[in-house]
Amino acid sequence: xxxxxxxxxxxxxxDPQGNAIKKVASNYFGVDFVDIxxxxxxxxxxxxxxxxxxxxKLASQILxxxxxxxxxxxxxxxxx
Amino acid sequence: MKVAIVRFLGTNCDFDCEFAAxxxxxxxxxxxxxxxxxxxxxxxxxxxxFSYGDYLRAGALAKFTKLANALIDFDKxxxxxxxxxxxxxxxxxxxxLEGALITNTNLRFIHKxxxxxxxxxxxxxxxxIEKDILKMPIAHKEGNFYCDEKxxxxxxxxxxxxxxxxxxxxxxxxxxxxxxxxxxIAGICNKKGNILGLMPHPExxxxxxxxxGEYFFSFLR
Lengths: 80, 221
Hints:
The complex is a heterodimer of chains A (80) and B (221).
Chain A: E1 2-9, H1 16-29, E2 40-45, H2 51-63, E3 69-75
Antiparallel strand pairs in A: 1-2, 1-3
Chain B: E1 2-7, H1 14-23, E2 27-32, E3 43-46, H2 66-76, E4 80-84, H3 86-93, E5 100-102, E6 110-118, E7 133-140, E8 144-146, H4 149-157, E9 161-166, E10 185-189, E11 195-198, H5 212-216
């Protein structure tokens, strides 16, 4: 099974990296970006009967810290 | 007092901590992250550094070591656990302490001397410190203490904020906050008062490096 996991800073949690990018991008394009949030992206491949379970735990227990981050898992369809 | 100085891959303040603890008269032993038993010790120090290259999140990968499990057992018996800098980050990742240390608001690695104020708290390790304002260095990029409002209220209500960044006179204000930490928080302890995490480096302020680290480590005497 293949999956993509996106980890992003929780709403309300200060994201200094996103803020810095926002400032630079706003200056560069001469527009006011309302918000830019920076996160992390993981591509995972696992062959196991309970792959979904394990990938879910991977995202919640290792790849993200629930205090400051949310995660989203996108499973790749088998037919693609 | 017998002190364990823990070494993960990437720990780099181990010798400084060993020097400081020995200087204060404690017996010390370096402990590798694969060790499983800490019963011989009274205190475990998690030194600063970049455990596992700070990959994923600062302190995140150290929690999957054998030593981390031993640490949880050690806490059950009430042993003292002191996490300095990366050690503090590891303790929050292990959920032995609340909150998280996120990137400094200015996105920079900050290394300079700061003042911190010892707050009235339930921390067992700081009771013997004979002064309230201490000067010592910080050296981190992820030292910006964050937690949600509910946790912050709990930390305050239970007097578990142990140190706050302040100026030379002890005034706690925005100017004296080096990294954006909520309410200038530099260190907190757990509910039992036996686990302390702080971002500043007291081990770099002993002997010829300063005296306030010696005040800090009074509990080792």
